[in-house]
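[Automated response] Your request has been received and processed.

Submitted sequence:
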Amino acid sequence: MSRKIVVGFDGSEASQRALDFAITRAQAQGDSILIAHVLEWSPYSFLTPSEVEERHRRRTEELQRAEAAILTPVVRQVEQAGIPVSTTLRYGHTAETLCRIARDEGAAMIFIGRMGASGFASRIFGSVAATLAQVSPVPVTIVP
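Generated structure:
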């Protein structure tokens, strides 16, 4: 039975390791892969109509750049491995958005690369991997 695996991918070495591991799992189990790229976007309030228009234009450009520079090259890699693949680009908090994607897509698992940051900020604010491990609606594989 084919399942869908969500891979959080941001173009980093850690996310590439997670994708590589997901490819081996998908090949072994006949699964498909959904590569998810989340762009952090902080909401602004009290924008003028011209600021809203400019923000929309910039968001559209940013999505197009992310598609071309980050997702398109790795889609080819997954296709060459013979695995059904799709992509999604979303704005939002990374962990929350990956959870929403997994839920909406009926995914069986989320794969994410561990960045290895252990500094003060990650202890205070948490990391994406740690947050996913606590709140994800599906099992999370954190690839070192």
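Summary generated for your ticket: Residues 49-80 form the longest helix (32 residues). The chain has one domain: 4-143.
If you did not submit this request, please reply to this message.
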